Every structure is written in structure tokens, then in C-alpha cells.
Sequence to fold (414 residues):
Amino acid sequence: MNAKLDSTVTTRPVSRQTFDAVLVPTYAPAAMVPVRASGLDLWDQNDKHYLDFTSGIAVTSLGHAHPVLVEALTRQMNTLWHVGNGYTNEPVLRLALALTDATFADRAFFCNSGAEANEAAFKLARKYAHAKFGPAKSRIISCLNSFHGRTLFTVTVGGQTKYTEGFEPLPPQIDHIPYNDIEAARAAIRDDVCAVVVEPVQGEGGVVPADQAYLDELRVLCDKTGALLIFDEVQCGMGRTGALFSYMNYKVAPDILTCAKALGNGYPIGAMLTTNELAIALSVGTHGTTFGGNPLAATVALKVLELINTPAFLARVKEAGAKVVAMLQQMVADYPQVFSLVRGSGLLLGLVLADAFKGRSKDIQKAAEAEGLMLLIAGPDVVRLAPALIVSDEQIAEAGRLLRIAVDRLIKVA
Fold:
């Protein structure tokens, strides 16, 4: 092979078929290829317009190409990109101060993704318990149908066997209980448990909010047994449910919180937030990351936090969420053979399919895409909506109109 890269290779046309030819087939992306976007508007290679109600799986919560974020990133790109973890930098220090000021936490650890944030949280829980109680206190309790990442550790903690098949042997001392089941939690959380991890709103598991009584009881059980309570807010955090973090809606503070996704609005960054008492367990050299907390990511994340964490912005998220719920509830009423109920919180919502359409969430997603509406799924039986938090009333109405056209056409075909 010629060591010199031929310029025609980097400039030749690419298409969806290129994915099948050269990428590892871990995904089966849509037929269309997005090329540009602004706000909730997106265009593909054929210049077809789409209304994006996915936010890149709850990531671009301030919309695509937000001008304030573009300006902040561009300014930092002309200043300092990367220095490595032998040095700190001003943007990451400002971001850590802002996040700890805004939450229960005293300390922050920055990384590149939600999986890495959860990996750090689980390692911290084991390390802290080992030092304080000894190696016998090592078991981690998670929920069935949860999702915490794709590393071997985090995918094992996640309660979906379809993601662990073929990767055995899996890390031990990890057990799963039904979500929102208080009695199961009481039976499982014993003195050998070092951590209990839960999503305040299960995202990939079907868009299911936690019951208030369930989170209250988890807090009590963790306090009683010395286990750490970890909230995974990778998907439901950063304003998605109408509070900066979902735990604030429940008034139940965790010992460790993880976030990512919307924290960088598309620029890769993750964070683990915790207390002074716990943070000292991860002393110098016990954990790390090359790119975590780099100046570019930290600059964007700080600006995202400034824009989202205001009373007016969060109040609008709740208002917009109520309008989307009303639109979806009307869909349920008008199409009872297709949809059965709406659930979720804020602007993380699930449209649950009726028995006659069970297993067909992907069909509805594809039908909506054909009409110019981008939606998500949360398993085979739930259509998921996670629009940017800046969604307008007009865009909500347009999403409802496009979804109705898609469902009407799907019903006719069926």
C-alpha cells in the first residue's frame, strides 16, 4: 500500500453504502445521511429537510450549531486545545466550580462519555467500599432493562442480556432487580452491597420514570447498609426533565451522579460528580483519562450549563414537555389500535405501542422519517421523543402533523 494518502481518497463521494463497506457493523443507521443542521432543522445529502425530534439521543439539547456554542468553541480552538493530565486548565476548573455550585457535589471527574462516567462511578464505589469496609463489600445492584454504557463493566451493570451475550465471562458481583420494585430492593440490598445504581428515568429501557417512593426507599436502604447510591443521569440530566438534574425533581440526593450526552451538546464529554468524602478514594494514579476535561470540551460544557441552568429556561422545558404530552395523548386517543399510553418526564417521552402494534416501533420510526420527522425508539414497543429543549410550539405541532401522516400511511399498508 502506498504510504502517501491519495487526496482522491479523502474527497471522493460517500454514501450510506460506504458505511456497509468500511465501518464495523455495530450499527444499522438510517438510509439517509445528514450533512447539515441548525436548531431542530436538518438536511440530508439530497437536501431533504427533517424535523429532528431525537437530539442525537438526547445530546444536542440546545439544537444543532447553536451560535453561542459555536462562538465559544471557536474562541477556545484559537487558544488552547490539549495539554494532557499532567496539567490542568482554566476551562475545566471553571466547569468543575459551576457544576459543584449547582449540585449536591463537592468534586468532579471529567471524561469523554457516559460509559466512562459510569465506569468511574463503579470503580469509585468499589474502591471506597474496599478501603472502608474491606473486599467483601463489593456487590453492585442495578435494575433490569437499565443501560449504563458499552464497556464490559458498564454493560454488565446494565440489565439487558442482549448486550452481554458472547462477551462472557462477565465481571462478577453484579445483580439486577426489577425497576420500581421496592420489595425486590429490600431483599437485594444487604451489607455486602457497595453500590446501587439507578436511572431516575430509564431511557433505553422504555422511557420509564422512577416512582418517588422507590427512590426514597433506595436512599434509606443505602444509608442503612453503607452502600452508595449512584444516579445515572446521562440521558435524563442537563435540563431534560425540567430540572438541571432529575434528582432535583425527586428531592433525593445521590452519593454519585453521572452525566454526559447533553453536557457537551454534541462535543464529547462526561462527568462524575461526588462528595469530598468519597472522592479521596480515587487518589493520584488510581484512575485517569487522556482527553477527559480538555479545554475544548470544558469550554463548550460550561456554556451549555450557563444556558440551560436558568429558571426561565427550565420552566420552558416543563411547558414544552406538557405540550408534547398533550399532542401525544391525542395521538393515543385517535389511534388506540396503534398507541396505548404516554410516559416519561419533561422532554424525554415514550409513546407505548398497543398490543396490535407490539414490536413495530422501528416501523413507525421509519414511516416518520419518510415524512421528514426524526424519532427514536426505546426497544421494540416504544417510540421515543427527545427533541432539543429549545423546541417551539410550532415545531411541536408540526411533529404531531407529520407523525399522523406517517401513522395513517402505515395503517393503510397494514
